[in-house]
Design brief:
With about 120 residues, the protein is α+β, with helices and mostly antiparallel strands. It contains 3 helices and 5 strands; from the N terminus they run ααβββββα. The protein has a 5-stranded antiparallel sheet. Helix 1 runs antiparallel to helix 2 and helix 2 crosses helix 3.
């Protein structure tokens, strides 16, 4: 059982966003190389929209907090306040949701985190 299965068992977020965590749980066996492990990710209420209108997924990477929000507009990825991840999402990457499934947006989030991890490791 993964951390995402725990979120699904005690679901407290908008039902529209449950497929995002379903996809994360399904991806545990094909997790992107270089990304922090699934157990290092957290699921939270979205930033700057109603709690029922999206989902924030984040992880800590060294001294940085990386996250992505999937909401009705699509996917926004960036850095978060490491002391309060739900405080502010400083966007670095935006993928509009038009014509994309929640699974596609979730995969794009994981790919972005993996790319940031690779970039961070090559800078150090």
């Amino acid at each position: 059982m993964s951390t995402f299965d725990d979120y699904l068992a005690d679901w407290e977020f908008g039902e529209d966003w449950r497929p995002v965590v379903d996809r994360l749980a399904a991806r545990v066996t094909s997790w992107p190389e270089g990304a922090p492990g699934p157990e290092d990710f957290c699921v939270d209420f979205p930033v700057d929209v109603l709690w029922t209108d999206g989902l924030l997924v984040w992880t800590r990477l060294a001294g940085t907090c990386l996250g992505g929000q999937i909401d009705r507009t699509g996917l926004r990825c960036g850095t978060l306040n490491p002391h309060n991840p739900g405080d502010q999402l400083d966007c670095r990457f935006v993928l509009l949701g038009t014509g994309r499934s929640l699974s596609d947006l979730t995969d794009a989030l994981l790919d972005w985190v993996a790319a940031q991890t690779d970039r961070d490791e090559s800078e150090h």
